[in-house]
Amino acid sequence: MVDRLAKGWFSEVSSEMWPGQAMSLAYEEILEDVQSDFQHVQILKTKTYGNALCLDGVIQITERDEFSYQEMMVHVPMFSHPNPEHVLIIGGGDGGVLREVLKHPALKSVTQCEIDGTVIELCKKHLPSIAQSFHHPKANVIVGDGFEYMKQHQQEFDVIITDSSDPIGPASSLFEKEYYSLVRSALRDGGIMCAQGECIWLHLDLIKSMQEFSRTLYPVVDYGYLTIPTYPSGQIGFILCSKNSETNFRVPLRRASSEDMRNMHLRYYNPDIHSASFVLPQFARLALEEA
Ligand code: SAM
């Protein structure tokens, strides 16, 4: 049995998702350590990454580097849509994706369906710079299973963002073809979806199969990535699908000006990195473009 909290170091060990490697963070204090109805929830005060949320022993977000993931998961799909008025977030219990969605002036409503109310409450308490928007007047937050929620909604949303944990535990259904098909039905005409798309260094086979089934459902499918120190191998991707065959995710449909970027307090996203995120290293390009 591996000691995940040995000598002041938290180590992220997963023999299934990243065998033989582990990201470690030095921590000063364990602020929360509870078993919710769905998962083991921990919040650590780390030495150099601020407070960190871990679920079932896996780092979900740290205060220091969260912005790269949240901004790319939100602004790439939002700037690829002509007028994103109604948005749905599945998962995302730390509140970071919600915070970024609310920065878009076209937005009229944002619904969030997170399975675990404990995650939301603990993030409000210990990660307030991330979990700051749950009470925003445009936000409607529901505690429930995203897969079940999707079955009950048709043609409602312009953009659906799935900010899920890994496909082990409560999020496993969110990586399946049936879920992507339900998302398609819940999107309005021309709608766009973006989902956590795992890592090219570790999960190429999973990404390939997700791309393959997505292409049977949507006319446009693409995969981009971002860098982030505290996710396994320092990289994570996002799968994008559009119901509009004219969509080209690689060039922002609406280009954020310098003033927009200042007003939105962007720290990672800009129109150039939007396009650059689709430029894959050759091994990944070969694997995914052949998919
Ligand atoms: N960005 C992170 C990562 O990739 O490590 C994930 C963020 S974390 C906040 C993902 C959230 O998805 C968790 O709060 C978890 O409770 C939620 N989640 C997992 N399965 C879900 C489901 N079936 N429906 C809704 N939310 C779910």
UniProtKB/TrEMBL annotation:
GO terms for molecular function: spermidine synthase activity. Keywords: Polyamine biosynthesis, Transferase. PANTHER family: SPERMIDINE SYNTHASE, SPERMIDINE/SPERMINE SYNTHASE. PROSITE patterns: PABS_1, PABS_2. Belongs to the spermidine/spermine synthase family. The keyword Cytoplasm does not apply. The active site is at residue 163. SUPFAM superfamilies: S-adenosyl-L-methionine-dependent methyltransferases (SSF53335). This is PABS domain-containing protein. GO terms for cellular component: cytosol. It comes from Monosiga brevicollis (Choanoflagellate). Residues 7-243 form the PABS domain. One of its GO terms (biological process) is spermidine biosynthetic process. It holds the Pfam family Spermine_synt_N. It comes from the Eukaryota.
